[in-house]
Amino acid sequence: MPQWSEYTDGERIKILRGMETRQSDLAEMTGLSLQTIQQAEQGKRLTLRTLIRIADALGVDTSVVLGQQAPRRSMQRDDRAMVRDLSRTVHDTAAGLLDITDPPALEELREASKACWDTYWRGSYMEAGALARPLLEQAAARLHDQPADEQAEAWGLLADAYRLAAYVANLIGSRDLAYAAIGHAQHAAEQAADDVRRALVMSGRSWVYLRDTRLADALTLAERAATDIEPKFSTATMEQLVAYGSHVNFAAVVASRMEDKERAADYLSQSHATGARMGQEYRAHGTVFGPVSATTQAVGINVALGETGKALSLIGDIKPVHERVLSGAARNRYAMDKALAQADAKLWDASLETLEGALLAAPQWARHQVLPSVIVSRVATGSTTRLRRVVELIGTASSTGGFPPATPRNAL
């Protein structure tokens, strides 16, 4: 398959347009004539004016059309437009450019924030990104209207909104936007003087570093985030335990990527202890944690460490009734880790069955994952029919955007 830069400008426009948009549709979207669109796709004539209008209509930078930058993996035109809108909102709100004159009350904002995070944890990342844009605008406007001595909660809600934007951007590989949004979240959390939110933002930045393969930096921040909010179990609130448990668990994830078994095991022990203390799954500040989360996430950590036996032992202890208490995104991720552990154990038919079930249950979520392809590459033998079905499902998910998937920067 050719690299993105190897296509002609016209071919790239046609690929970005996709099957769902006709040339006549693109002409109407750009205000250009059908003949101009046809000439552009034939490589006969692409003026600067035409280039700018087409790029804007397709929701991409002009550098993507010109082949200087690959399009985002597995993103449809509407998805790309969402990312551009979210990016503009992140930068505009940080610059104080507001046009909302009647912002909602804090209680309404709290409910809106919870709804946005619920969407995110269902695994509907593009919808969460679309919701994050008005949430950011409204939170920034509320902050602007709050009396100076009553701004702490508004700053906290703004920090949560920026963190949501950073999470969505990080998942879809928009790394520059992720860095910008998490930076603004950090500033807002500092203004809120909220230790838990500061730690959540720090852990979020650690995750951005992890996806950017800055492993040492990621581990340093993850450990700081966990240490800064380590509670006394005898007096800790559920909110504090959620934050601490998720933080030590993520520190274990980063340690496992660095192949530091001793450190990962230590953090896993603390994660399990926190989950046991909680006794149930709990959600706070856009984060979910509890005993089931601790166990299911330990599966992926042990797989990363090459401890396939431990991973399978944990899988044996997790029953369907346990999985049902997880959020959609967490349940889908656990299915990927389970399939990967089964593949490593040469339980190829079981691995394909688990993977196929996850792909069928959450096709939109799967669009933004690289693990399905990794799992298939490890399945040496198995049901030829099921393997074919899984490969077709992965192909459908990764090609939804109408263009060949760009090679991800890493598979973490």
TrEMBL record:
SUPFAM superfamilies listed in its UniProt record: lambda repressor-like DNA-binding domains
Organism lineage: Bacteria, Bacillati, Actinomycetota, Actinomycetes, Kitasatosporales
Organism: Streptomyces katsurahamanus
Pfam families in the record: HTH_3
Record's protein name: Helix-turn-helix transcriptional regulator
Gene3D superfamilies per record: lambda repressor-like DNA-binding domains
Domain HTH cro/C1-type: 23-65
